[in-house]
Automatic annotation (TrEMBL):
<protein>
    <submittedName>
        <fullName>Methylenetetrahydrofolate reductase (NADPH)</fullName>
        <ecNumber>1.5.1.20</ecNumber>
    </submittedName>
</protein>
<keyword id="KW-0560">Oxidoreductase</keyword>
<dbReference type="GO" id="GO:0004489">
    <property type="term" value="F:methylenetetrahydrofolate reductase [NAD(P)H] activity"/>
</dbReference>
<dbReference type="InterPro" id="IPR029041">
    <property type="entry name" value="FAD-linked_oxidoreductase-like"/>
</dbReference>
Length: 304
């Protein structure tokens, strides 16, 4: 016979599949020129109009970035290339990059500091790029910025999030003072609680930028652990560590079903939850992620 303790300890029921499907309906995905070259035609695996972030890893030739951007644009996707401040020498180089992307039909950008230890030139943070006004003059209609629900040691080397929040406050003010359409796209995490707590702190601080939450697509556990350590994932790393300690699950792919169910459930109960979209990092491969999403979401509808 069940006792009261059984009811206290019972975990909430998973969100209904339809709730998760609706939550990820307008997802985006991140690719690199190298990984994109392995896909014969993105139209076969992505809904029309999907936003595709084009990651600029240090050392990637601009010619490869532009060729991939042109290809994805021609295939009907909303391409959003990275503009890493620390990898751009000066205002003239920034202007050249913006113009080159505009020439292949790009009107969106993810503006971020970049993962380089040292700036290669005049810029070291995203706000410096935004404040040049060059994106606006080139007709870029969306300017997204990076967010870190579990902090960022590059920005707050002693821990905490004072510098990260101050940077987001400046970007939030930039949105209010200009006609830029902005959002925060975040680093991935592996459990919902740190994300929910982070958005609560953002709102308490008066920040209004919408959030596109980063989620790692399905991958082998060893692959997931490698990228999590490289990218500085915070306390939610414990989800993977617990999984690694369970020999019955060690060889199984890690999938994002649980965190998405938790976030979908929170969104349903709290409509003002600022997470508006899900952004997938295909750590286990583009095909593995798009297959998983295709099975989890309803029939594709073209984006507005």
């Amino acid at each position: 016979m069940a006792s009261i303790l059984d009811f206290v300890r019972r975990k909430p029921a998973p969100a209904a599949p339809l709730a998760v499907a609706g939550f990820i309906e307008d997802f985006s995905i991140e690719v690199m020129p190298r990984t994109a070259s392995q896909i014969a035609d993105f139209r076969a695996i992505l809904p029309a109009g999907t936003r595709v972030y084009l990651a600029h890893i240090d050392g990637t030739p601009m010619a490869d970035m532009l060729a991939t951007a042109r290809r994805l644009t021609d295939e009907g996707f909303a391409v959003m290339p990275h503009f890493p401040a620390r990898g751009i020498a000066d205002r003239a180089e920034l202007a050249r990059r913006i113009a080159a992307y505009a020439d292949v039909g790009v009107t969106r950008a993810l503006v971020l500091a970049g993962g380089m230890d040292r700036p290669s030139g005049a810029f070291h943070e995203a706000m410096q790029l935004l404040e040049t006004g060059l994106f606006d003059r080139a007709g870029f209609t969306r300017l997204h910025v990076a967010g870190h629900p579990e902090g960022n040691r590059d920005i707050d080397p002693n821990g905490g999030e004072a510098n990260v929040m101050a940077a987001l406050a400046r970007k939030d003010a930039f949105q209010r003072e200009t006609d830029a359409r902005m959002a925060i796209v975040t680093q991935f995490a592996f459990e919902a609680a740190p994300i929910i707590d982070w958005t609560d702190r953002m709102r308490a601080a008066g920040l209004t930028l919408p959030v596109h939450i980063g989620i790692a697509g399905p991958a082998k556990l060893q692959t997931m652990l490698k990228y999590a350590m490289m990218c500085g994932v915070g306390p939610s790393l414990r989800v993977l560590q617990r999984r690694a300690a369970d020999l019955t699950k060690l060889m199984l792919p890690f999938e994002p079903a649980e965190i998405l169910a938790d976030l979908a459930r929170h969104k349903a109960a709290n409509p003002d939850f600022p997470v508006e979209r899900v952004h997938f990092f295909p750590l286990g491969g583009i095909g593995a992620t798009t297959d998983w999403v295709s099975n989890a979401r309803p029939a594709a509808r073209r984006r507005a």
